[in-house]
Amino acid sequence: MIFNSIKEMEDKLQNAVVFDRETAIVKDRALLQGDLTDFLIKTAVFADEDSLKAKARYFIKLIANALGIRLASIHSFYAEIGKGNVRAMTVPAMNLRGMAYDSARAFYRAAKRLNCGAYIFEIAKSEMQYTSQKPNEYVASVLAAAIREGYEGYVFIQGDHFQANAKKYFEDKEKEIISLKRLIKESILAGFYNIDIDSSTLVQLDKPTVREQQKENSFVCAELTNFIREIEPEGITISVGGEIGEVGGHNSTVEEFEAFMEEYLPLLKGGEQIKKISVQTGTSHGGVVLPDGTIAKVKLDFSVLENISKIAREKYKMGGTVQHGASTLPDEMFHKFKEHGAVEVHLATGFQNLIYDHPNLPYDLREKVYDYLLQNFSKERKERETEEQFYYKVRKKGWGDPLKKEWWEIPSDVKEPIFQDLEDKFAFLIEQLGVNNSKEIVDKTVTSLEIKASYDNELKALTGGITLEVDTNPRAD
Question: Taking the model in full, what pTM does it have?
Answer without folding.
Answer: 0.94
